[in-house]
Amino acid sequence: MPTTLSSREFNHDTSRAKKAALTGPVFITDRGKPAHVLLCIEEYQRLTGSQPSIIDILAMPGGEDVEFEAPRATIKTKPVDFS
């Protein structure tokens, strides 16, 4: 169920908005009109059909704690034809 907060409410209680975004979109209003929508990252990714790249994940705060082992690169050579 969507939650609606004024900009002032959002600024004073951001943690409430973040908790509400876990269950649905949070509409943030400016002068009574919807101006922004806060979504949890999973919902945003579902809507956009995008997944973050490993570069994005590692650049995030706490990214240094992400376990990642890159697959070993295989380079195949081809014979050169000088004719």
UniProtKB/TrEMBL annotation:
| Stated role | Antitoxin component of a type II toxin-antitoxin (TA) system.
- One Pfam annotation reads PhdYeFM_antitox
Sorted UniProt keywords: Plasmid
Concerning InterPro entries, the annotation shows:
Antitoxin_Phd/YefM (IPR006442), YefM-like_sf (IPR036165)
Determine if Nucleus is one of this entry's keywords: no
Gene3D superfamilies noted in UniProt: YefM-like domain
Q: What is this protein called?
A: Antitoxin
Lineage, broadest ranks: Bacteria, Pseudomonadati, Pseudomonadota, Gammaproteobacteria, Pseudomonadales
Give the similarity note. Belongs to the phD/YefM antitoxin family.
